[in-house]
Backbone:
């Protein structure tokens, strides 16, 4: 349990301050009545167009998570609310099936998830991601997974079959080289050791698996790059990528609070200084094409380290889905259950 702590929500006209010590944040689950499941991405900063997010909010509690801001749109806070007030989309699979049945759908790759982790702990109970993957398999629609959780190995059967019939990749996010470092910044995600185990099992099953070193946080985890890439490659990872941490809006306040509570003051000062150096004196850049990369000597050194290490280890480019798409809608009889 942790004490409730949220930066002021810029979309809420009310501001609250605790006159006494704040109460504990308890896990709450809400249902989302959304009529759609697919989100279209128009930003050049990410390499996909369509994403599906069965959950909002994330129990993993990563200090830097850019999706914290999205929770404020729901009237919640970006701090402990994001980690404890979780929203599920119980009709996720049904909505995805409806999208695939539209004449306008062309069988493009769907990424799970562009927002919060599709394999956070509540997935073990609700199985919304698994049900969505079953829909992808029914339609032979290409899919890609991004996660920090060992729970992904539960669905190796579906991922393997989808890769055989269509196209499927899995990306395991591992920004830190040790369990201790990971636990400090990503306190409730699977341990780094378990994430490497997920890489091993996915690769063994023949699923194209990669590793994400995102976010790279100057002064905090940039020195981990060679260790992470080497171990991931040894375990079967085929591709890798990284990006500079994004600290837009309330995310910056949450990040500062969490690293200040977890790290020595001189370490915090170094991290903030290096990050500022990588953003031309700012802590964030909201412009398209600039949000996930940096500038300056320090960031260039980090980028060179990543590129040279990746090349030396033989990492491939991120795989692309076949063209034309393997997508094929089931026959009407099968859809009606005949």
Residues:
């Amino acid at each position: 349990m942790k004490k409730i702590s949220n930066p002021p929500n810029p979309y809420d006209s009310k501001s609250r301050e605790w006159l006494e010590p704040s109460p504990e944040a308890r896990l709450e689950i809400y249902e989302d009545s959304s009529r759609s499941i697919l989100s279209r991405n128009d930003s050049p900063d990410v390499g996909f167009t369509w994403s599906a997010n069965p959950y909002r909010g994330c129990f993993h509690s990563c200090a830097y998570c850019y999706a914290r801001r999205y929770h404020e749109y729901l009237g919640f806070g970006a701090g402990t609310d994001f980690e404890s007030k979780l929203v599920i989309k119980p009709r996720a699979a049904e909505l995805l099936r409806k999208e695939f049945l539209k004449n306008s759908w062309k069988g493009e790759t769907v990424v799970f998830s562009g927002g919060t982790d599709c394999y956070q702990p509540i997935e073990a109970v609700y199985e919304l991601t698994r049900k969505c993957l079953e829909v992808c398999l029914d339609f032979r629609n290409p899919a890609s997974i991004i996660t920090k959780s060992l729970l992904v190995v539960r669905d190796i059967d579906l991922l393997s079959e989808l890769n055989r019939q269509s196209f499927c990749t899995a990306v395991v996010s591992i920004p830190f080289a040790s369990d201790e470092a990971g636990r400090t910044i990503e306190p409730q995600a699977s341990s780094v050791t378990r994430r490497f185990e997920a890489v091993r099992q996915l690769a063994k099953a023949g699923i194209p698996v990669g590793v994400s070193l995102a976010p790279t946080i100057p002064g905090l985890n940039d020195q981990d790059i060679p260790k992470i890439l080497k171990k991931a490659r040894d375990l079967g990872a085929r591709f890798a990528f990284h990006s500079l941490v994004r600290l837009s809006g309330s995310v910056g306040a949450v990040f500062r609070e969490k690293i200040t509570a977890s790290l020595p003051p001189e370490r915090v000062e170094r991290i903030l200084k290096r990050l500022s150096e990588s953003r031309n004196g700012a802590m964030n850049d909201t412009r398209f094409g600039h949000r996930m990369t940096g500038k300056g000597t320090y960031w260039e050194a980090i980028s060179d380290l990543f590129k040279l290490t990746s090349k030396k280890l033989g990492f491939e480019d991120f795989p692309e889905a076949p063209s034309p798409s393997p997508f094929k809608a089931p026959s009407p009889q099968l859809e009606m259950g005949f």
Notes: The domain at 31-315 is CATH 3.20.20.70 (TIM Barrel). The longest strand covers residues 168-173. The chain has one domain: 31-315. The radius of gyration is 20 Å.
